Structure formats: structure tokens, C-alpha cells
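Appendix B: a complete holo record

For completeness, this appendix reproduces one full record from the ligand-bound portion of the collection. The bound molecule is nicotinamide-adenine-dinucleotide. The inputs are the chain sequence and the ligand SMILES; the output is the full three-dimensional arrangement of the complex, encoded as C-alpha cells. No fields have been trimmed.
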Amino acid sequence: MNARTAVVTGGASGIGAATVARFLDDGWTVVAADLNDASGERLLAEHDGAAKDGRLLFARCDVAEEEDIQAAIDAAVGAGGHLDCLVNNAGVGGAFGPVTEISVEDWDYTFAVLSRAVFLGIKHAARVMRGQPDGGSIVNVASIAALAGDAGPQSYSAAKASVLHMSRVFATELGPDRIRVNCVCPGVIATPLNPAASEEFEGSPLAAIQPLPYVGRPEHLAGAIAFLAGPDSTFITGQYLAVDGGVEAAGPRLGSILGTDPRSVGLVGVNRGSTGRKATVHRKVTP
Ligand SMILES: NC(=O)c1ccc[n+]([C@@H]2O[C@H](COP(=O)([O-])OP(=O)(O)OC[C@H]3O[C@@H](n4cnc5c(N)ncnc54)[C@H](O)[C@@H]3O)[C@@H](O)[C@H]2O)c1
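The structure of the chain with nicotinamide-adenine-dinucleotide bound, as generated:
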């Protein structure tokens, strides 16, 4: 069988670059599609051997532009003869500030890069994958901001929620063509887009909301994306996978606000509420 072929948008930095590296390690042929030529050149230099072998191509691409997306996908088909995976990953922070001051232009830019681009990617990947006996896999990179109202700027959060829902609606439409569409929701990941996550983790505000005691890295996402791209996830479609160190699972961390956090409170027992029965309480025996 020919090597599997993928397009990774925003493939020249952060999560995209780690995904490109993972695909190359796994023997795939990859087109990294990105707007930033300098980062693209760095990526090619970093994977010099794969670039020389024609297994890594850089396509300068603005994901908000239909012709650019189409060209990146056609480049992958030209290189590999088929398209097995599209990773819709490119992203920016987008518009921020009070709603009364956000301009329509900045709002539209955010949605063009984060939302329209995902529609365009799915449209052109489906065009190719539909004709393939094994269909293909599309992985969209959303965010935990798609799941909650205070995990990112408003425009970013709303656009990422559309990415999550596109994963469901297009999984439904394209399932009969064996095209799977899934989504990853990164938490706070140390990349150039998120400088705060690149600082010292221990004792940071992030450490207070995230159960796992280490910072998220682009490679953590690359592993999840490789799983959703490949044969181990053949029966999974229309799903999201939060890759967030447990932030979504923990929710608003009320335990630390209400003083019921089991790790910090020295008591064990059972509260029987307003039943008229007494609570039982004793001191914790384990440290
Ligand atoms: N880093 C985080 O904490 C985090 C958390 C949740 C979600 N995400 C999402 O992960 C994805 C990757 O982000 P990252 O953290 O690796 O950021 P990054 O800045 O390291 O990489 C993003 C890449 O996208 C490219 N890009 C931006 N606009 C583009 C456009 N119009 N056309 C083509 N390429 C474009 C950039 O040039 C850059 O190379 C984004 O969708 C982001 O929203 C990141």
C-alpha cells in the first residue's frame, strides 16, 4: 500500500508542527499548509530528509481562502495519489475586548480563520475522500473554549463551538462515504499562540484549574490526532476528545471554593443533608 497522506493546516508551528512530525515518524506523506512562510522554511529544514524525499511539502495557504485550501489538498493528492487525513488545525486568538467595542471586521476575521476554514477544508477533503474505497479521516482542532463560556475570548469560543458542531453534522453527512469527522479540544497547551502556558507551570493559575500536574505540550495533541487519523479509531466519528489535563472533567473547581476538596480537607464522613439523620465525621487517616 502507498504511504498514507495527510494535509495539516497551520502545520508550521505548535500543535500543527508536532502533528506533522508525528505523521512523518509514522511513515506518512504530509503537506503542511500555513500562512507563515518563515515557519514553513524552518519546518522543512527541521525535517530535511523527509523534505528531500518528497514526504514533506509546504504549501503557503490562507485557510480562509477556498482556492488556497483546494490547492493544498490537491498538492497532497499529487504527492501521494490519495488523501487519508485532513487536520483542520490553523488558528489565531482572534477578536477580543468588550462586546460593545469589537468591530465586525475583527469578528468576521476570527470566524473566517477558525470556522469558515474548517468548512472549506471539509468540503475539499470530502471531494477527494468520497471517491476512495476507504474514505478518510478529518480531524478538527477546536478547544475547551468550545465547551464553556469562559475559556477564551467570545469570538474565539463561539467559532470553536461551531467547529465542534461541524464535526457532528459532517460526520453524519459523510459517514455513508466512510469519511470520519472528529474533533480534539485542547486545553492550555504550550505553543507560541499561548505564551502563558509556556511559563513555569507549578504554582501558576493554570495549575490550580488543571488536575494533571504537568503542562500540555503540542505532542500530547499530536498523539490524540494520530489516533483519530488512523485505523485504531475506525469506528469513531462525530466525537470530541478533550486533551486538556482534566480541565473539562474537573469543571469549575467548586471544591476549592467551598472547602470540600478531598485532597486538602482533613475530614472523612458522610453528610446526610436535611434528612434529620446525623452526619458522621472522622479525621483522615491517610496523609
Ligand atoms: N495552544 C493552546 O493552548 C490551544 C488551546 C486550544 C486550542 N488551540 C488550537 O490549536 C490550533 C493550533 O494552535 P497552536 O497553539 O499550535 O498555535 P500556533 O500559533 O503555534 O500555530 C498556529 C499556526 O496556524 C497558522 N495560521 C494562522 N492563521 C492562518 C491562516 N489564515 N491560514 C493558514 N495558517 C494560519 C499560523 O501561521 C501558525 O503556524 C489552533 O486552532 C488553536 O486555536 C490551541
